[in-house]
């Protein structure tokens, strides 16, 4: 850690109302967007642990609106958790306010910082260790959806506009194909055809939202296992973290992104697509947990559309990877030649396997209903 960065952390620590005397801090977690540190402060009662983060305002263009979203949602969650006899200090994020009363501070270089109470005796995992982890993941995100069912989603700012607007992503893809700025389109004609053959389905969810058949709700938009704190003692999902992409959206997208990532038998960037398939047992495990967590808060149409949510999120992600490949790999980090192309092909192979298993996916949802 350089002297300049160290100085900025010290400045931010002084601007946020942490309890006690700062003793030490070190990098924490595996996130790649924000700079995250675990802070230890000494008080008369002993040590207090916190998280301090520099918000990446190159990715999140409006940190003030982002923090307003998080403050509103976590305040709402604390009330619900307390009413249900839970522990709001461990079951939701708790913002440490700045000394001027705001939910964030700015250092002298204009960087945005925030603080959270550290959640003790809990761990995040980057990979599913066993089916129980995936079940707990589904249960946690389902409970998150239920707890926020009455939150006015329309009041939330879009931290990344059109993040899961599949038709908009498709138009960007078509523009990239037409421009062919890197001369790569001739290499991926099969993949381009795959995308365009499914164009009619791309707008189905947004059309249903427009028609009022799917409700707008609070969505997390990054529903991976590593955004859940698992209680070290019980092994149960405890708290949803990383709320930067909290936005108004569709529940089927949060469900679908979990399936895309967690029920694939291969890694997201597996070059050998013969290894790619949808694990129906894992799909069922997550669906059971998700519906149990939702506990009746989904509409019949939302339940019915869960498989389509999985397919659309996988399709959309593949479209984004292929778009980036056509545009010269400028958005997603790549570590080898054709990395984004491998990612796109993996997503499209998973979509194809979902199509083969469609009736089985629908049957899983029916028998998992609560």
Automatic annotation (TrEMBL):
Gene3D superfamilies, alphabetized: 3.90.1200.10
Listed Pfam families: APH
PANTHER family per the UniProt record, alphabetical: AMINOGLYCOSIDE PHOSPHOTRANSFERASE DOMAIN-CONTAINING PROTEIN-RELATED, SLR1880 PROTEIN
Protein's UniProt name: Aminoglycoside phosphotransferase
Domain Aminoglycoside phosphotransferase: 25-262
Species the sequence originates in: Lacrimispora saccharolytica (strain ATCC 35040 / DSM 2544 / NRCC 2533 / WM1) (Clostridium saccharolyticum)
Single GO molecular function: transferase activity
InterPro entries in UniProt: Aminoglycoside_PTrfase (IPR002575), Kinase-like_dom_sf (IPR011009), Pseudomonas-type_ThrB (IPR050249)
Organism domain of life: Bacteria
